[in-house]
Every structure is written in structure tokens, then in C-alpha cells.
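Database export, one record per block. Field names are fixed; values are copied verbatim from the stored entry.
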Amino acid sequence: MNLAITSANTVSGKDNLLVLTDSNKLDWAKDYLSPSIATYLKKACEQGVTQLFLPTEKSIVLVQVLKKEKNKSTQREQARKDGNEILEIIERNKIKEVTVINHASSDLTYDYVEGMALGSYQFLKYYKDAENKKNALEKLRVLKSSLSSERLEELKNVVKGTCKARDLINEPLSYLTAEKLSEEAVALGKDANFDVEVLHKDKITTLKMGGLLAVNKGSVDPPTFSILEWKPKNAKNKKPIILVGKGVVYDTGGLSLKPTSNSMDFMKSDMGGAAVVLGTMYAVAKNKLPLHVIGLVPSTDNRPGKNAYVPGDVITMYDGTTVEVLNTDAEGRLILADALHYAKSYQPELVMDFATLTGSAARAVGSQALVYMSNAKESVKKKMEASGMATYERLVEFPTWKEYGEMLKSDIADLRNIGGSNAGAITAGKFLEHFTDYPWIHFDIAGSAFLQSSDSYRGKNGTGVGVRLIFDFLNNY
């Protein structure tokens, strides 16, 4: 993230200001604007203008009139979108620094700055003229009286975790192999002071992680299994909370080959679940949450080369379950299943898995929500849904009825890896549930992890969806 975000104790007449205000609360204007410009501001607000660019003798004053919403979560989301929208004015006028001050009655500074920070994200690594493409805005200061330095620091770390997740999703396979993903985890651990252990192919083979090894059979690159751990001395939970992320760094579909157009060409994003885990672990550790949290990331690419596994194969999973593979493009659940079984060794308090798992989930809820399935207590699910509304990474619960599990019965093995043409997102979740014996929440983020067109502060391409949601949940756990 190129944008520097800092707290400010005071402002001077030379500072460019971004003032958050109500349309009928403009007493502050006399402190920053001439009488004539203040009069212009009042008339503009009366006419319904919500964003203004007001040049003064020594600086610029940007004004954001915050919209009133009855629903708190909708109001917070609108503030984020407003924050993203003001960037257009800032960029158009090549403003390099701005200080945010809240004179509105609503306490929406956090959300507004969050929208600005996330909206300013850029992935310029592969442009030869990257310097020329950089945003004009370099420094964003926030007055401490509008947002405490502690809250701002928390926000910066969550934004950075989200942007790191975006970076990883946007990286092509030519850089981000399974081994490189594990190296990225190690680097984040050093930055945020959490521990990382990487299991390589020899160890994965010794453990007999049959799902991960089967998917990897068609690849020239070895798999990895990364274990990330944040365990502060003041952890409130005796048993760890575990995050599991699907790390398929590229998915061709294997021998069940995907079509290229609008499918395989975006499959560098199939490790979006792993990105959630890495980004969340970063935010948790940097903000020193008093929780013991572990991240598990099984990783490989899925290709049709070498001795690739084929439809009709029977593989033995890490827990001993035999699985009839009827579609090699249903590979994410195979590597996640091994990780979910591995999680049992920690006797966890709660396990959450994240995956761009099914087109079925994407078709059901589009890009505006995440599908989830769970056997956790209702109180836990309610807290998670509250975090979904707070961050506007909203959740739709799909059922875990036993009848869906019946659809996974095989004629020759314990399970088959697909359930049929209907209820694909649910049967995928039921497959994963088989490998759990603890409170569990499954998130299918296929519709929202990677966007082909821009969506406000979420941007285009990798969104980092899930990081803000899970951090909010853990922060209020």
C-alpha cells in the first residue's frame, strides 16, 4: 500500500482539508473559509450537493456531506463509498496530502477513511511505467479528535492485511507458485511477528495427505502446507481458533479442463481463501489481538500434466477416508479436507475455512455476499453475521441438512467428490463437514474474491474479501 496514513494533532492554514459534515451543520466553515465561500457552501448544501472542491488562498478544502441512513450498516457502507468517490476529485486535482476532520454528527470517520484507503489500492508491479501510474495522493492525515491514533493504527493494519490479500490474488502463477506462497507467508510472519512453519512435499507425503498429493500429481511444482501461528501470552482462549484457506495458486480444472474465456483466465484467483488467511493473520498479529489463532494453508496448482489424477480415480485422504474422484475440477475440497483433518490435532475451539470453492455459490449470491455453512452455536453465527453487516461483507447461510450428504455417496468408495448438478455449493460444504469434529464455519467466497469490473472501494480483480470480516469477528470475539 503506497498511501501513508498518520494521525494529526492539529491543522494549519496551509493544510489541505477534507471536512466531513452534515448539510445543516456548517458552523465550522468560518474557521477555514472566507465568508463568500462559506455562503457558496451553504447554498450548495441546500441544493443537495454532497462533495465540493473549495480552493482557499493557501490550500484546498474538500467537503463531504454525509448522507443520512436509517440503517447503521448501510450508513457505514455509504461512508466507505463516499470515501472512495472523493478520490476522483483528489486525483483529478493532483492533491498529494490531505487531512480529514469530522464535523458531522455521525461518527463515520473510521469508515470514510477505510473507503479512501482501500479505494487507493493499486497493483502496479508489472507495469514498466508504474511510477507514472501511481496515485497522486501520498499522505492521508486524520485529526486525532476525529479518530484516535489507536483506532487509526488498527484500521491501517486491517487495510494493509486486506491489500496484501489483494496483492497475492492478483499475482500470476508465473510468480506465485505454491512454494512462493509459503515464502510470502514467512515474510508476513516476520513483519507481523507470528510464527510460520512450512511442510514441503516429503513431509506431506510422510503424513499421507492424499487429497493435496492427488491434486498436485499433474504439476511440475511441489505442494506446500503452511502453518501460521499467533499465540500471545495474554490469549483469552485456551483452545485455538483455526483459519483454513484454499491455496490453489492456479486451477486449470485438471483433466476436467475448464474453458479459457471467463473461467480459466481468472484462475490465478483460486487461492483467494489462502489470501484471507494470510491477510487476517497479519491484521490479527499487527493489532496484537489477545487470541490464539492458527492459519493452515494447503497449496498447489491443479494441472492436467505428468501423472495427473483422473476422473474415476479413488484416493485415500489424510484421515483414511476413500474418495472417488468424478471431477478433477472439484479439487479445492480435496486439499481443504486434509487441512481440516490436520486441524483436529489442535483440539480447536472453532475452525473457519475459506475457499473460492464453487460456481454454484457465485451464481446464488453473486458478488454481494459470501455463502456460509456451519455447525457452530447460534450465538457464534449471530456474531459472525453481525460482523458481516458491520463490514458489509454480508453472509447468506446455506443448510447442512443430512440429505445433502446422501448425494455424496459413492458406489465404490466412502465418498465421491461431487454431489451432482444441483445444490453444488451445499454438497461441497457437506464434503468438507465430513472431515470435521469441532465447531466449524465454511465460507464459499467464489462470487466476491475476484471481480471483473470495479465495485467502489473493493476495486477490480482481487478484493481481499474476508479479511475485514474475520478481523471484526475476532476483534469482538
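Remark 1: The mean pLDDT is 97.
Remark 2: The longest helix spans residues 149-170.
End of record.
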